[in-house]
Amino acid sequence: MGDFPMPACYPVSILNPNRIWKTDNVMKSELPILSFQIVFTILLSRLFFFVYKPFHQPRLISQISVGFLLTPPLLGRFTSIFEFVFPVNGVLNIEVLAHIGVIYYAFLSGLEMNINTILQVKKKAGTIAIAGIIFPMALGPAFYALHRKYYVTGPTTKLEECTINAFLLWTLILTVTGFPVLAHILSELKLLYTNLGKTALTAAMISDTYGWVLFTLLVPFSINGQRAVYSVLSTMIFIIVLVFVIFSVSTYAVNASAVLLMTVVVSPIINAMYRPRKRFEQNKLKTIQKLRVDAELRILACVHNNRQATGMISIIESFNATRLSPIHVFALYLVELTGRAAALVAAHLEKPSNQPGAQNQNLTRSQAELESINNTFEAFVEVYDAVRVQTLNAVSAYATIHEDIYNAANEKRTSLILLPFHKHMSSEGTLETTSVVYKDINQNVMQDAPCSVGIFVDRDLGSLPKMNFRILMIFVGGPDDREALAVAWRMAGHPGIKLSVVRILLFDEAAEVDTSVHGEAHGILSAVMDSEKQKELDDEYVNSFRLTAVNNDDSITYSEVDVHTGEDIPAVLNELEKIGCDLYIVGEGNCRSSRVFSNLLEWCDCTELGVIGDILASNNFGSSSSVLVVQQYGYGGMVFGKPSNVATNNDGFESLVVKTE
Prior knowledge:
two-stranded antiparallel ribbon
């Protein structure tokens, strides 16, 4: 018995003696200890999580760290504390709970596996999965030999006395990838729906399936020898029933260290090696204005439901896709991540299937919505030969899903991101809030988007025919208005569209430059120079539009309106509304540097639409026309929040309002 630790004994008071249930009062003796251990472990895990969070480490690292901390070599050195947290009579309960946890983990991992993805694996993912299986199998025995040589100095355990069994166990431990863990890591790194993320997930799914099969069949033999045949047979019978009937201690420390090390280095390595944004920054086609006439227009259309998909198609249809200038639409279905990440990720890993029989499968609500969205866009492609559509999906927490949108725009090299407004058209003809969270998503996207952005306020635009379709573009000035004019200019090429461009010229009070955004002493001069530079760019682009488009196309008209005060702006919009149109196109108003517009922005309910867009989208304005608000890439995103009317420089003096003639 010298090779094995002595068993621990403790007295148990039996309150209910019978042949079936012999135990103490668990509510008084067992449950308080177990509850304390669970709470203690969770608190430590949260503590480690916040410590590792700045280093972009997944939650698994904090959990493994707690496991190391609670081992006898660390916490066990403090005997009184260790025995207080883990008394002898509470160890058995922890072991039972741990085994139940492993059973549930294996069960949920099986539910998260997509058997169709495994059976229809592509060559690239399959090759990576095979390599990820072969290399650990080859290195496992070598690592174990080094472990026996340098770390095992005392008597070995019963398992390690059989070298073949130990080799087998080490090989299996190093082979398992951990599909749910990898899915969570990729989700935190916002790589789930990149090509890299999809390939890694597919390979991990194959590797994890292989690992669990080997664990089920071979580990029992490693521990119990020939007696394990009954356990293996029972497991195989259970699997067959599920598939065909239901169909729907030093060694541990070293292996745990290996898993911890491999998981820790994943995030830094991926962040260091995978930088798609830098590659995309070399591409100059991130705005509609800079896009060549004969270039393919790439649009990332984000939707939350099929109704928004229908509205997006109506606005994309207006972009006039031709063989000379085709359109490639990437329809991105946004799904909120709730519960376990891997289960939802596995469900959305592949493109929706249009094969016979797919409609009879049991789909989740998000999968069914994705099927509907895919069918809607596929029907759109059948009508237009110059349009290509690829349906994507992003499953993430709404607070960070804008980063997934960034990654998709970077990877697909899009020139425009189309976002749905957070309100929809009601049966009474007014806009009702669909979800306030959608508004936050739109604002987050516009703050640091990698290309131009458009927010589409849909007032049932899809019900209108594209013959005699009237578009009114309101131009005030600034990069966003120039991008909006570029969008309207492109749409004007559609044979059934009539475009009217109205330029609002600012004079007197309306022409005052807002310098409050410049806190430095040289902010006044900088604001004036920026304003003059923007005016030059505006005049240059508008003159080019008038010379090229207005003079050569009778379906395009151009006019100008003078505005002298802030009160004139709503009045002008009301007069334009009387003329009527089917779609307004306006710029958000970034870099406009107008004191009047800065003051009006404070009263806007939807600052992401800008002043003009907010008025047009308001129910009080009484318009039945849809609105497209555009923000151009390259001038910094809109900073949302209430701007202060008065800024103070370093000397404490109030900033001045400069009037330009």
